[in-house]
Amino acid sequence: MSSAAVDQVDYDIVVLGAGSGGYACALRAAQLGLRVALVEKDKIGGTCLHVGCIPTKALLHAAEVADTVRDAASVGVRATHDGIDLAQVLRYQDEVVGRLYKGLTGLVSGRGVDVVSGSGRLAGPGQVEVDGRTLRGRHVVLATGSAARLLPGIPIGGRIVTSTEALRLTTVPERVVVLGGGVIGVEFASVWRSFGAQVTVVEALDRLLPPEDPAVSAAVQRAFRRRRIEVRTGVRVAGAVDDGSQVTVTFEDGGVVSADLLLVAVGRVPVTDGLGYAEAGVTLDRGYVTVDEQLRTGVPGVYAVGDIVPGLQLAHRGFAHGIFVAEHIAGRNPASVVDALIPRVTYSDPEVASVGLTESQARERYGEVKTVEYSLAGNGRSQILHTQGFVKVVSVPDGPVVGIHMVGARMGEQVGEAQLICAWEALPGEVAALVHAHPTQNEALGEAHLALAGAPLHAHA
Ligand code: FAD
Questions:
Q1: Which residue, judged by its Cα, is nearest atom 7 of ligand 1?
Q2: Are residues 239 and 358 in the same domain?
Q3: Tell me: the pLDDT tens digits for 315-336?
Q4: Is 144 in the pocket of ligand 1 (CB under 6 A)?
Protein backbone atom coordinates (compact mmCIF):
# COMPACT_ATOMS: atom_id res chain seq x y z
CA MET A 1 0.00 0.00 0.00
CA SER A 2 1.37 3.48 -0.82
CA SER A 3 2.18 5.86 2.04
CA ALA A 4 -0.47 8.24 0.62
CA ALA A 5 -3.08 5.50 1.07
CA VAL A 6 -1.84 4.78 4.61
CA ASP A 7 -2.20 8.50 5.46
CA GLN A 8 -5.82 8.36 4.44
CA VAL A 9 -6.91 5.31 6.46
CA ASP A 10 -9.95 5.73 8.66
CA TYR A 11 -9.60 2.41 10.46
CA ASP A 12 -7.10 -0.24 11.42
CA ILE A 13 -9.60 -2.88 10.32
CA VAL A 14 -12.71 -2.77 8.18
CA VAL A 15 -14.71 -5.96 8.68
CA LEU A 16 -17.19 -6.88 5.95
CA GLY A 17 -20.03 -8.92 7.48
CA ALA A 18 -21.08 -9.05 11.14
CA GLY A 19 -21.78 -12.74 11.67
CA SER A 20 -19.88 -14.97 14.12
CA GLY A 21 -16.54 -14.46 12.33
CA GLY A 22 -16.88 -10.76 11.63
CA TYR A 23 -18.24 -9.57 14.96
CA ALA A 24 -15.77 -11.68 16.94
CA CYS A 25 -12.94 -10.09 14.97
CA ALA A 26 -14.35 -6.60 15.57
CA LEU A 27 -14.84 -7.15 19.32
CA ARG A 28 -11.36 -8.59 19.88
CA ALA A 29 -9.69 -5.93 17.71
CA ALA A 30 -11.43 -3.13 19.61
CA GLN A 31 -10.40 -4.77 22.89
CA LEU A 32 -6.81 -4.64 21.64
CA GLY A 33 -7.11 -0.91 20.98
CA LEU A 34 -7.61 -1.00 17.22
CA ARG A 35 -10.05 1.28 15.37
CA VAL A 36 -12.68 -0.91 13.75
CA ALA A 37 -15.56 -0.51 11.29
CA LEU A 38 -18.05 -3.38 11.05
CA VAL A 39 -20.14 -3.38 7.89
CA GLU A 40 -23.45 -5.27 7.95
CA LYS A 41 -26.31 -5.22 5.47
CA ASP A 42 -28.76 -6.98 7.76
CA LYS A 43 -28.46 -7.56 11.53
CA ILE A 44 -25.26 -8.01 13.49
CA GLY A 45 -25.06 -11.59 14.72
CA GLY A 46 -25.48 -13.04 11.21
CA THR A 47 -26.72 -16.52 10.38
CA CYS A 48 -25.96 -18.13 13.73
CA LEU A 49 -27.90 -15.70 15.88
CA HIS A 50 -30.83 -14.94 13.58
CA VAL A 51 -31.45 -17.97 11.35
CA GLY A 52 -28.99 -20.64 12.51
CA CYS A 53 -27.64 -22.00 15.78
CA ILE A 54 -29.79 -20.11 18.26
CA PRO A 55 -33.30 -20.30 16.74
CA THR A 56 -32.80 -23.97 15.78
CA LYS A 57 -31.66 -24.85 19.29
CA ALA A 58 -34.70 -23.05 20.73
CA LEU A 59 -36.90 -25.22 18.46
CA LEU A 60 -35.00 -28.32 19.55
CA HIS A 61 -35.54 -27.40 23.18
CA ALA A 62 -39.29 -27.03 22.57
CA ALA A 63 -39.15 -30.44 20.85
CA GLU A 64 -37.41 -31.96 23.88
CA VAL A 65 -40.06 -30.52 26.19
CA ALA A 66 -42.79 -32.03 23.97
CA ASP A 67 -41.13 -35.45 24.17
CA THR A 68 -40.61 -35.14 27.91
CA VAL A 69 -44.28 -34.37 28.45
CA ARG A 70 -45.32 -37.18 26.11
CA ASP A 71 -43.15 -39.62 28.10
CA ALA A 72 -43.97 -38.18 31.52
CA ALA A 73 -46.13 -41.13 32.55
CA SER A 74 -43.16 -43.48 32.25
CA VAL A 75 -41.51 -41.76 35.21
CA GLY A 76 -44.76 -41.49 37.13
CA VAL A 77 -45.69 -37.91 36.32
CA ARG A 78 -49.22 -37.31 35.08
CA ALA A 79 -49.19 -34.78 32.27
CA THR A 80 -51.00 -34.42 29.00
CA HIS A 81 -49.54 -33.27 25.74
CA ASP A 82 -52.26 -31.32 23.94
CA GLY A 83 -50.24 -30.37 20.90
CA ILE A 84 -47.82 -27.72 19.75
CA ASP A 85 -48.65 -23.99 19.88
CA LEU A 86 -46.25 -22.92 17.17
CA ALA A 87 -47.08 -19.23 17.61
CA GLN A 88 -45.84 -19.48 21.21
CA VAL A 89 -42.81 -21.53 20.11
CA LEU A 90 -41.93 -18.67 17.74
CA ARG A 91 -42.44 -16.07 20.48
CA TYR A 92 -40.11 -18.06 22.74
CA GLN A 93 -37.55 -18.37 19.92
CA ASP A 94 -37.81 -14.62 19.21
CA GLU A 95 -37.39 -13.77 22.90
CA VAL A 96 -34.16 -15.78 23.10
CA VAL A 97 -32.77 -14.32 19.87
CA GLY A 98 -33.93 -10.81 20.83
CA ARG A 99 -32.19 -10.88 24.22
CA LEU A 100 -28.93 -12.11 22.69
CA TYR A 101 -29.18 -9.56 19.86
CA LYS A 102 -29.71 -6.73 22.33
CA GLY A 103 -26.72 -7.93 24.36
CA LEU A 104 -24.51 -8.20 21.29
CA THR A 105 -25.51 -4.76 19.96
CA GLY A 106 -24.68 -3.24 23.35
CA LEU A 107 -21.35 -5.07 23.47
CA VAL A 108 -20.33 -3.90 20.00
CA SER A 109 -21.21 -0.26 20.63
CA GLY A 110 -19.74 -0.41 24.15
CA ARG A 111 -16.39 -1.45 22.69
CA GLY A 112 -16.44 1.57 20.34
CA VAL A 113 -16.80 -0.40 17.11
CA ASP A 114 -18.30 1.73 14.28
CA VAL A 115 -21.18 -0.26 12.85
CA VAL A 116 -21.84 0.77 9.26
CA SER A 117 -25.22 -0.38 7.94
CA GLY A 118 -25.40 -1.24 4.29
CA SER A 119 -24.24 -3.61 1.64
CA GLY A 120 -20.48 -3.50 1.19
CA ARG A 121 -18.05 -4.63 -1.47
CA LEU A 122 -14.29 -4.91 -1.61
CA ALA A 123 -13.18 -2.01 -3.81
CA GLY A 124 -9.46 -2.81 -3.64
CA PRO A 125 -6.79 -3.49 -1.03
CA GLY A 126 -7.74 -1.54 2.09
CA GLN A 127 -11.01 -0.28 0.67
CA VAL A 128 -14.60 -1.28 1.29
CA GLU A 129 -17.38 0.56 -0.50
CA VAL A 130 -20.72 0.80 1.28
CA ASP A 131 -23.56 2.41 -0.62
CA GLY A 132 -21.27 4.85 -2.40
CA ARG A 133 -19.12 5.62 0.64
CA THR A 134 -15.55 4.33 0.81
CA LEU A 135 -14.18 3.07 4.13
CA ARG A 136 -10.40 2.88 4.19
CA GLY A 137 -8.61 0.49 6.47
CA ARG A 138 -5.07 -0.74 6.95
CA HIS A 139 -6.64 -4.18 6.86
CA VAL A 140 -9.86 -5.64 5.54
CA VAL A 141 -11.46 -8.80 6.91
CA LEU A 142 -13.92 -10.57 4.63
CA ALA A 143 -16.64 -12.29 6.67
CA THR A 144 -19.67 -12.49 4.40
CA GLY A 145 -20.69 -16.00 5.48
CA SER A 146 -22.84 -18.55 3.74
CA ALA A 147 -26.31 -19.22 2.34
CA ALA A 148 -28.35 -22.36 1.78
CA ARG A 149 -27.27 -24.37 -1.25
CA LEU A 150 -30.12 -24.75 -3.70
CA LEU A 151 -30.73 -27.55 -6.19
CA PRO A 152 -31.34 -26.86 -9.86
CA GLY A 153 -34.99 -27.41 -10.76
CA ILE A 154 -36.17 -27.15 -7.14
CA PRO A 155 -37.04 -23.49 -6.61
CA ILE A 156 -37.63 -22.27 -3.07
CA GLY A 157 -41.16 -20.95 -2.40
CA GLY A 158 -44.51 -22.12 -1.03
CA ARG A 159 -44.10 -25.65 0.31
CA ILE A 160 -40.43 -25.88 -0.65
CA VAL A 161 -38.26 -24.21 1.96
CA THR A 162 -34.70 -23.81 3.23
CA SER A 163 -33.82 -23.76 6.94
CA THR A 164 -34.50 -20.01 7.04
CA GLU A 165 -38.18 -20.37 6.09
CA ALA A 166 -38.47 -23.58 8.11
CA LEU A 167 -37.75 -21.58 11.25
CA ARG A 168 -40.82 -19.40 10.70
CA LEU A 169 -43.54 -22.00 9.98
CA THR A 170 -46.82 -21.16 11.65
CA THR A 171 -48.25 -24.68 11.56
CA VAL A 172 -46.68 -28.07 12.02
CA PRO A 173 -46.77 -29.92 8.68
CA GLU A 174 -48.30 -33.38 8.80
CA ARG A 175 -45.81 -34.91 6.37
CA VAL A 176 -42.33 -33.54 5.71
CA VAL A 177 -39.54 -34.61 3.41
CA VAL A 178 -36.08 -33.46 4.43
CA LEU A 179 -33.56 -33.45 1.60
CA GLY A 180 -30.14 -33.87 3.11
CA GLY A 181 -29.05 -35.97 6.07
CA GLY A 182 -26.37 -33.55 7.29
CA VAL A 183 -26.51 -31.65 10.58
CA ILE A 184 -29.24 -29.19 9.57
CA GLY A 185 -31.46 -31.86 7.98
CA VAL A 186 -31.09 -34.21 10.94
CA GLU A 187 -31.88 -31.45 13.46
CA PHE A 188 -35.06 -30.35 11.64
CA ALA A 189 -36.16 -33.98 11.16
CA SER A 190 -35.78 -34.45 14.90
CA VAL A 191 -37.80 -31.30 15.73
CA TRP A 192 -40.67 -32.09 13.38
CA ARG A 193 -40.96 -35.69 14.57
CA SER A 194 -41.15 -34.46 18.17
CA PHE A 195 -43.85 -32.02 17.06
CA GLY A 196 -45.84 -34.94 15.64
CA ALA A 197 -45.04 -34.87 11.90
CA GLN A 198 -44.37 -37.89 9.70
CA VAL A 199 -40.80 -37.32 8.56
CA THR A 200 -38.74 -38.79 5.72
CA VAL A 201 -35.05 -37.91 5.47
CA VAL A 202 -33.41 -38.47 2.11
CA GLU A 203 -29.63 -38.55 1.84
CA ALA A 204 -27.67 -39.10 -1.38
CA LEU A 205 -24.70 -40.67 0.42
CA ASP A 206 -24.93 -44.04 2.15
CA ARG A 207 -25.57 -42.77 5.69
CA LEU A 208 -26.82 -39.87 7.82
CA LEU A 209 -24.22 -37.37 9.09
CA PRO A 210 -21.62 -38.57 6.55
CA PRO A 211 -18.61 -36.75 8.08
CA GLU A 212 -19.13 -38.51 11.44
CA ASP A 213 -17.73 -41.91 12.43
CA PRO A 214 -19.89 -44.61 10.74
CA ALA A 215 -20.75 -46.07 14.18
CA VAL A 216 -22.35 -42.72 15.06
CA SER A 217 -24.33 -42.58 11.81
CA ALA A 218 -25.59 -46.13 12.41
CA ALA A 219 -26.68 -45.28 15.97
CA VAL A 220 -28.56 -42.17 14.84
CA GLN A 221 -30.25 -44.13 12.05
CA ARG A 222 -31.33 -46.82 14.55
CA ALA A 223 -32.64 -44.18 16.93
CA PHE A 224 -34.51 -42.44 14.11
CA ARG A 225 -36.06 -45.75 13.10
CA ARG A 226 -37.24 -46.22 16.71
CA ARG A 227 -38.71 -42.73 16.55
CA ARG A 228 -40.44 -43.72 13.29
CA ILE A 229 -38.48 -41.22 11.20
CA GLU A 230 -38.05 -42.78 7.77
CA VAL A 231 -34.45 -42.61 6.55
CA ARG A 232 -33.66 -43.23 2.88
CA THR A 233 -29.95 -43.25 2.10
CA GLY A 234 -28.15 -43.61 -1.22
CA VAL A 235 -31.08 -41.90 -2.93
CA ARG A 236 -30.77 -38.86 -5.17
CA VAL A 237 -33.59 -36.45 -5.78
CA ALA A 238 -34.68 -35.89 -9.40
CA GLY A 239 -37.19 -33.08 -8.92
CA ALA A 240 -39.96 -31.60 -6.81
CA VAL A 241 -43.26 -30.02 -7.78
CA ASP A 242 -45.41 -27.89 -5.47
CA ASP A 243 -48.99 -27.90 -6.78
CA GLY A 244 -50.26 -25.64 -4.02
CA SER A 245 -51.84 -28.40 -1.94
CA GLN A 246 -48.82 -30.69 -1.61
CA VAL A 247 -45.29 -31.14 -2.85
CA THR A 248 -44.35 -34.24 -4.85
CA VAL A 249 -40.73 -35.29 -4.71
CA THR A 250 -39.34 -37.69 -7.29
CA PHE A 251 -36.12 -39.65 -6.95
CA GLU A 252 -33.64 -40.93 -9.52
CA ASP A 253 -34.48 -44.53 -8.52
CA GLY A 254 -38.07 -43.91 -9.65
CA GLY A 255 -39.48 -43.42 -6.15
CA VAL A 256 -42.07 -40.72 -5.43
CA VAL A 257 -43.05 -39.20 -2.07
CA SER A 258 -45.74 -36.61 -1.43
CA ALA A 259 -45.61 -34.28 1.53
CA ASP A 260 -46.92 -31.01 2.91
CA LEU A 261 -43.43 -29.57 3.08
CA LEU A 262 -40.03 -30.14 1.53
CA LEU A 263 -36.95 -28.87 3.35
CA VAL A 264 -33.90 -28.47 1.13
CA ALA A 265 -30.93 -28.91 3.46
CA VAL A 266 -28.14 -29.96 1.13
CA GLY A 267 -25.36 -27.79 2.49
CA ARG A 268 -24.30 -24.14 2.52
CA VAL A 269 -22.50 -22.13 -0.14
CA PRO A 270 -20.13 -19.22 0.53
CA VAL A 271 -21.43 -15.69 -0.07
CA THR A 272 -18.62 -14.25 -2.18
CA ASP A 273 -20.17 -13.58 -5.60
CA GLY A 274 -20.43 -10.02 -6.90
CA LEU A 275 -18.65 -8.51 -3.88
CA GLY A 276 -15.53 -7.40 -5.73
CA TYR A 277 -13.34 -10.13 -4.24
CA ALA A 278 -12.09 -11.64 -7.51
CA GLU A 279 -11.68 -8.21 -9.09
CA ALA A 280 -9.50 -7.11 -6.17
CA GLY A 281 -7.26 -10.13 -6.74
CA VAL A 282 -8.63 -12.45 -4.03
CA THR A 283 -8.30 -16.09 -5.12
CA LEU A 284 -11.56 -18.03 -5.03
CA ASP A 285 -11.99 -21.79 -5.36
CA ARG A 286 -15.58 -22.83 -6.12
CA GLY A 287 -16.67 -19.65 -4.37
CA TYR A 288 -14.58 -20.21 -1.21
CA VAL A 289 -11.78 -17.78 -0.40
CA THR A 290 -8.32 -19.33 -0.53
CA VAL A 291 -6.27 -18.40 2.54
CA ASP A 292 -3.01 -19.40 4.20
CA GLU A 293 -2.62 -20.58 7.82
CA GLN A 294 -2.82 -16.97 8.99
CA LEU A 295 -6.14 -16.59 7.14
CA ARG A 296 -4.52 -14.13 4.71
CA THR A 297 -5.82 -13.98 1.17
CA GLY A 298 -3.23 -13.36 -1.54
CA VAL A 299 -4.03 -9.63 -1.43
CA PRO A 300 -1.87 -7.75 1.09
CA GLY A 301 -3.84 -6.72 4.17
CA VAL A 302 -6.98 -8.67 3.20
CA TYR A 303 -8.03 -11.61 5.42
CA ALA A 304 -11.01 -13.99 5.34
CA VAL A 305 -12.80 -15.71 8.24
CA GLY A 306 -15.74 -18.03 8.92
CA ASP A 307 -17.91 -19.92 6.46
CA ILE A 308 -16.28 -18.39 3.34
CA VAL A 309 -13.04 -20.21 4.27
CA PRO A 310 -13.12 -23.89 3.17
CA GLY A 311 -13.61 -26.28 6.10
CA LEU A 312 -16.10 -26.81 8.90
CA GLN A 313 -18.94 -24.30 8.73
CA LEU A 314 -19.49 -23.74 12.43
CA ALA A 315 -20.05 -20.61 14.49
CA HIS A 316 -17.31 -21.36 17.02
CA ARG A 317 -14.82 -21.82 14.17
CA GLY A 318 -15.90 -18.39 12.92
CA PHE A 319 -15.36 -16.89 16.40
CA ALA A 320 -11.92 -18.49 16.57
CA HIS A 321 -11.01 -17.22 13.09
CA GLY A 322 -12.14 -13.69 13.96
CA ILE A 323 -10.19 -13.62 17.22
CA PHE A 324 -7.12 -15.05 15.48
CA VAL A 325 -7.12 -12.37 12.76
CA ALA A 326 -7.64 -9.52 15.25
CA GLU A 327 -4.72 -10.75 17.37
CA HIS A 328 -2.54 -11.34 14.33
CA ILE A 329 -3.17 -7.81 13.06
CA ALA A 330 -2.52 -6.41 16.55
CA GLY A 331 0.93 -7.98 16.39
CA ARG A 332 0.27 -10.78 18.86
CA ASN A 333 1.39 -14.23 17.95
CA PRO A 334 -1.81 -16.31 18.11
CA ALA A 335 -1.87 -20.03 17.38
CA SER A 336 -3.57 -20.93 14.08
CA VAL A 337 -7.06 -22.39 14.20
CA VAL A 338 -6.87 -26.12 13.43
CA ASP A 339 -10.09 -27.59 12.02
CA ALA A 340 -9.18 -31.08 13.27
CA LEU A 341 -9.61 -30.02 16.91
CA ILE A 342 -12.88 -28.13 16.51
CA PRO A 343 -15.72 -29.85 18.38
CA ARG A 344 -18.85 -30.75 16.41
CA VAL A 345 -22.32 -31.17 17.88
CA THR A 346 -25.58 -32.19 16.22
CA TYR A 347 -28.39 -31.25 18.61
CA SER A 348 -30.95 -33.83 17.46
CA ASP A 349 -32.51 -36.53 19.63
CA PRO A 350 -30.21 -38.36 20.12
CA GLU A 351 -27.43 -35.79 20.22
CA VAL A 352 -24.12 -36.37 18.51
CA ALA A 353 -20.85 -34.85 19.69
CA SER A 354 -17.40 -35.49 18.35
CA VAL A 355 -13.89 -34.15 18.13
CA GLY A 356 -10.76 -35.31 16.34
CA LEU A 357 -10.38 -38.19 13.93
CA THR A 358 -12.89 -40.89 13.06
CA GLU A 359 -11.61 -44.46 13.32
CA SER A 360 -10.92 -44.70 9.58
CA GLN A 361 -9.20 -41.29 9.47
CA ALA A 362 -7.01 -42.38 12.40
CA ARG A 363 -6.16 -45.67 10.63
CA GLU A 364 -5.21 -43.74 7.52
CA ARG A 365 -2.92 -41.49 9.52
CA TYR A 366 -1.46 -43.90 12.08
CA GLY A 367 -1.91 -47.36 10.57
CA GLU A 368 -2.91 -49.26 13.66
CA VAL A 369 -5.33 -47.78 16.22
CA LYS A 370 -7.12 -48.86 19.40
CA THR A 371 -10.83 -48.20 19.92
CA VAL A 372 -13.33 -48.65 22.70
CA GLU A 373 -17.08 -48.19 22.47
CA TYR A 374 -18.56 -47.72 25.93
CA SER A 375 -22.34 -48.19 25.93
CA LEU A 376 -24.49 -45.72 27.85
CA ALA A 377 -26.40 -48.80 29.04
CA GLY A 378 -23.78 -48.93 31.81
CA ASN A 379 -24.12 -45.26 32.71
CA GLY A 380 -26.55 -44.50 35.55
CA ARG A 381 -27.43 -40.96 34.54
CA SER A 382 -28.16 -42.03 30.96
CA GLN A 383 -30.46 -44.77 32.26
CA ILE A 384 -32.26 -42.19 34.41
CA LEU A 385 -32.73 -40.09 31.27
CA HIS A 386 -33.93 -43.15 29.30
CA THR A 387 -31.30 -42.55 26.65
CA GLN A 388 -29.21 -44.96 24.63
CA GLY A 389 -25.91 -44.43 22.89
CA PHE A 390 -22.19 -44.71 23.46
CA VAL A 391 -18.84 -43.03 23.82
CA LYS A 392 -16.30 -44.24 21.28
CA VAL A 393 -12.67 -43.38 21.85
CA VAL A 394 -9.96 -43.79 19.23
CA SER A 395 -6.32 -43.81 20.31
CA VAL A 396 -2.92 -44.59 18.88
CA PRO A 397 -1.58 -47.86 20.43
CA ASP A 398 0.59 -46.80 23.40
CA GLY A 399 -0.13 -43.24 22.36
CA PRO A 400 -2.64 -40.42 22.76
CA VAL A 401 -6.35 -40.23 22.18
CA VAL A 402 -6.99 -38.82 18.70
CA GLY A 403 -10.77 -38.97 18.38
CA ILE A 404 -13.88 -39.11 20.58
CA HIS A 405 -17.38 -39.77 19.22
CA MET A 406 -20.50 -39.70 21.36
CA VAL A 407 -24.21 -40.36 20.82
CA GLY A 408 -27.05 -39.98 23.31
CA ALA A 409 -29.27 -37.37 24.94
CA ARG A 410 -27.28 -34.35 26.16
CA MET A 411 -23.93 -35.75 25.02
CA GLY A 412 -23.15 -32.39 23.43
CA GLU A 413 -22.42 -31.17 26.96
CA GLN A 414 -19.55 -33.67 27.18
CA VAL A 415 -17.67 -32.34 24.20
CA GLY A 416 -15.60 -29.89 26.25
CA GLU A 417 -13.69 -32.60 28.09
CA ALA A 418 -13.44 -34.63 24.88
CA GLN A 419 -11.81 -31.64 23.21
CA LEU A 420 -9.32 -31.15 26.04
CA ILE A 421 -8.37 -34.82 25.87
CA CYS A 422 -7.72 -34.73 22.12
CA ALA A 423 -6.12 -31.28 22.01
CA TRP A 424 -3.80 -32.05 24.93
CA GLU A 425 -2.96 -35.39 23.36
CA ALA A 426 -3.82 -37.14 26.61
CA LEU A 427 -2.99 -40.81 27.05
CA PRO A 428 -5.96 -43.08 27.90
CA GLY A 429 -4.32 -43.90 31.25
CA GLU A 430 -4.05 -40.19 32.15
CA VAL A 431 -7.78 -39.65 31.57
CA ALA A 432 -8.58 -42.90 33.37
CA ALA A 433 -6.78 -41.53 36.43
CA LEU A 434 -9.14 -38.55 36.63
CA VAL A 435 -12.15 -39.04 38.89
CA HIS A 436 -15.45 -38.34 37.11
CA ALA A 437 -18.49 -37.33 39.19
CA HIS A 438 -21.19 -39.93 39.83
CA PRO A 439 -23.86 -40.16 38.55
CA THR A 440 -23.17 -37.99 35.51
CA GLN A 441 -23.07 -38.76 31.82
CA ASN A 442 -19.53 -37.43 32.04
CA GLU A 443 -18.64 -40.68 33.79
CA ALA A 444 -19.15 -42.47 30.48
CA LEU A 445 -16.10 -40.61 29.15
CA GLY A 446 -14.11 -41.70 32.20
CA GLU A 447 -15.31 -45.30 31.83
CA ALA A 448 -14.39 -45.40 28.12
CA HIS A 449 -10.87 -44.33 29.01
CA LEU A 450 -10.69 -46.83 31.87
CA ALA A 451 -11.59 -49.53 29.35
CA LEU A 452 -9.04 -48.24 26.84
CA ALA A 453 -6.40 -48.23 29.56
CA GLY A 454 -7.25 -51.85 30.27
CA ALA A 455 -9.17 -51.43 33.54
CA PRO A 456 -12.91 -51.13 32.80
CA LEU A 457 -15.14 -50.80 35.86
CA HIS A 458 -18.80 -50.74 34.79
CA ALA A 459 -18.36 -52.51 31.47
CA HIS A 460 -19.03 -56.09 30.46
CA ALA A 461 -15.85 -57.52 29.01
P1 FAD B 1 -22.63 -15.45 8.81
O2 FAD B 1 -23.02 -15.77 10.17
O3 FAD B 1 -23.35 -16.01 7.65
O4 FAD B 1 -22.47 -13.90 8.72
C5 FAD B 1 -22.19 -13.21 7.54
C6 FAD B 1 -22.77 -11.81 7.68
O7 FAD B 1 -22.32 -11.03 6.58
C8 FAD B 1 -24.29 -11.78 7.64
O9 FAD B 1 -24.78 -11.07 8.74
C10 FAD B 1 -24.61 -11.10 6.31
O11 FAD B 1 -25.79 -10.32 6.37
C12 FAD B 1 -23.39 -10.22 6.14
N13 FAD B 1 -23.11 -9.87 4.74
C14 FAD B 1 -23.02 -10.70 3.68
N15 FAD B 1 -22.71 -10.01 2.58
C16 FAD B 1 -22.61 -8.72 2.95
C17 FAD B 1 -22.33 -7.51 2.26
N18 FAD B 1 -22.09 -7.49 0.95
N19 FAD B 1 -22.31 -6.36 2.96
C20 FAD B 1 -22.57 -6.34 4.29
N21 FAD B 1 -22.84 -7.45 5.00
C22 FAD B 1 -22.86 -8.61 4.33
N23 FAD B 1 -23.02 -23.52 13.82
C24 FAD B 1 -22.70 -23.96 15.05
O25 FAD B 1 -21.55 -23.85 15.46
N26 FAD B 1 -23.63 -24.53 15.87
C27 FAD B 1 -24.92 -24.69 15.47
O28 FAD B 1 -25.73 -25.21 16.23
C29 FAD B 1 -25.29 -24.24 14.17
N30 FAD B 1 -26.56 -24.39 13.74
C31 FAD B 1 -26.89 -23.90 12.51
C32 FAD B 1 -28.20 -24.06 12.08
C33 FAD B 1 -28.59 -23.58 10.84
C34 FAD B 1 -30.02 -23.75 10.40
C35 FAD B 1 -27.64 -22.91 10.02
C36 FAD B 1 -28.05 -22.36 8.69
C37 FAD B 1 -26.33 -22.76 10.43
C38 FAD B 1 -25.95 -23.27 11.68
N39 FAD B 1 -24.62 -23.16 12.13
C40 FAD B 1 -24.29 -23.64 13.36
C41 FAD B 1 -23.57 -22.56 11.29
C42 FAD B 1 -23.29 -21.11 11.70
O43 FAD B 1 -24.48 -20.37 11.66
C44 FAD B 1 -22.25 -20.51 10.76
O45 FAD B 1 -21.11 -21.34 10.75
C46 FAD B 1 -21.83 -19.12 11.19
O47 FAD B 1 -22.94 -18.26 11.24
C48 FAD B 1 -20.79 -18.58 10.21
O49 FAD B 1 -20.39 -17.29 10.59
P50 FAD B 1 -19.85 -16.27 9.50
O51 FAD B 1 -19.48 -15.04 10.26
O52 FAD B 1 -18.85 -16.89 8.64
O53 FAD B 1 -21.09 -15.96 8.53
A1: 17
A2: no
A3: 999 999 999 999 999 999 999 9
A4: yes
